[in-house]
Amino acid sequence: MLRITDIAKTFNRGTVNEKVAIADLSLTLNDGDFVTVIGSNGAGKSTLLNAIAGTWLTDSGSIMIDDIDITRLPEYKRAKYIGRVFQDPLMGTAADMWIEENLALASRRGERRRLLPGITRSERAEYAEMLKPLNLGLENRLTSKVGLLSGGQRQALTLLMATIKKPRLLLLDEHTAALDPATADKVLKLTDELVSKDSLTTLMITHNMQDAIDYGNRLIMMNEGRIILDIAGEEKKQLTKQQLIDRFNALSDQKLESDDVLLS
Amino acid sequence: MTLSSLLARLPGGIAIGILYGIMALGIYITFRVLKVSDLTVDGSFATGGAVSVMLMLAGVNTWISLLCAFAVGLLCGTVTGLLHTRLNIPIILSSILVQIGLYSVNLRIMQGSALKSISVDKYNLLINVRFVSKTILIGALISLVLIIILYWYFGTEQGSSIRATGNNSAMAKSNGINTATTTLIGLALCNGVVAFAGGLMSQYQGFSDVNQGRGAIVTGLAAIIIGEVLCDIFFKKGSSFWLRLTFVILGGIIYYLIMVLILWLRVDSNDLKLFTAIIVAIFLAIPNFRKGAAE
């Protein structure tokens, strides 16, 4: 479904700040894979997601979604296939626009923006139905500005927006990291529901090892711009935190006593 | 400096204020919707006047001359937009470049003279200082139509995507919006409306002036901000888009009436720009004062 072949990305090439963020990375996701991504700070997790989303172009390699080569496509064109939730709850929504307007914008992802009404009556009813299961009361606040919502509410809304058009690929970049633990847990459960409802192919970065183990059917660990561990199926189900730490220590030069270093 | 002389000047002040309000509706698109500062308007306001007057002198119908001013304004904004989106020059800088360049273009349009008169007796002017009450009526009607069009447009898919771009370009891109295109459209529309207003202003004055656009951005900001402060006072927060646009027109009127008042107080007209700057600074600060008081 997603096929990444030998991509590389170096920032600030030729300067003292040169940083190889991704080095010859290849990754293939199967249809319906829900992959959690862990790795220490600077391991290249976000860089990988940005490379796929098209925040900038990679230096080399290719990225295919289904049979479409998206390697050179600008971000807004890739959005046709990709739904995305950022770490910062402020980034995924337009604060000065209403809840329903945000949803309407998202439901036209990948389509031409015409001179037709930006939102129709039937859409409003649809959105209210979609928001009800969140139990956040947002269905009664369709014409509230998103800027008035809490971080958790905004992230839940962003999640809904990212999945409203059933993307071929869902990218979640530590989307619960900025939330308090209880809210983070809620948003994560909602993520799991939305992903399994449509069996969306998903890449989810998390700073929490336990979440990486509990969610998804496959786990990859990154270090210094490479994937150093790829665990799926039965093996992942049996995985414990301690095993993960041991395997990380065996594979990298860094020593981990706990999952501290994997935080963020 | 009698009261009656002040009262006598009010209608003319209202007429010019409405025209500035119409110009400010254009600036609203960039300043408030796209949230960028587009200084092209200082050039395109004069361009609109020049195009409209020269076409009418050549025998073109009044309305068609105004539509051409609008079209040329679209073009001015497009140039700024292309400099920004294709060559990555910051908007503020690319708009200054276009503004400066337009000065020469405007002189070319006016065949080398800095001032081109158009006689109200010989030409069928839509509005003029000679018939102020008709000007106010027509100005109000044009404002109404423009507000309806803008209200409709920014509710469409395309208009919403421009709003999203100004609000959060990362969000816009990740939802498949080509933010370069939306920015370009916004800049074009802004200058289209501004040039259209420039055409109206020339007809009102009976001449087009190459310096007509000097300070247009500041006047536009004054109208927008005075309008917003008043709108917040009367309707609190959360007023709808069409109401805010209406208050931009009112802001234009109030701004110019303050100018009339200052002139009536026998202030040297050379100092008028200084007063404009001070008034805009005061109104820019008011929302912050109110916030500070609330905290």
Description:
The complex is a heterodimer of chains A (264) and B (295). Chain A is of the alpha/beta class. Chain A has helices spanning 45-53, 75-78, 99-106, 121-131, 151-163, 181-197, 209-214, 233-238, 241-251; strands at residues 2-11, 19-29, 34-39, 60-65, 68-69, 82-85, 169-173, 202-205, 218-223, 226-232. Chain A has a domain at 2-81 and 167-262: Rossmann fold (3-Layer(aba) Sandwich). In chain A, the strands form 2 sheets. Chain A has a 6-stranded mixed beta sheet, sandwiched between helices. A 4-stranded antiparallel beta sheet of chain A has the order 2-1-4-5, with helices on one face. Chain A starts with a strand and ends in a 13-residue tail after the last helix. The mean pLDDT of chain A is 93. By secondary structure, chain B is mainly α. Chain B has helices at 3-34, 41-57, 62-87, 91-109, 132-153, 157-167, 169-174, 179-205, 216-235, 241-264, 272-294; strands at 115-117, 207-209. Chain B has a two-stranded antiparallel ribbon with strand order 1-2. Chain B is globular and about 55 Å long. The model of chain B has no long low-confidence stretch (mean pLDDT 95). The A-B interface holds A 53, 74-77, 79-80, 82, 84, 86, 90-97, 101, 104-106, 108-111, 113-119, 145, 161 and B 153, 155-161, 163-164, 167-168, 170-179, 238.
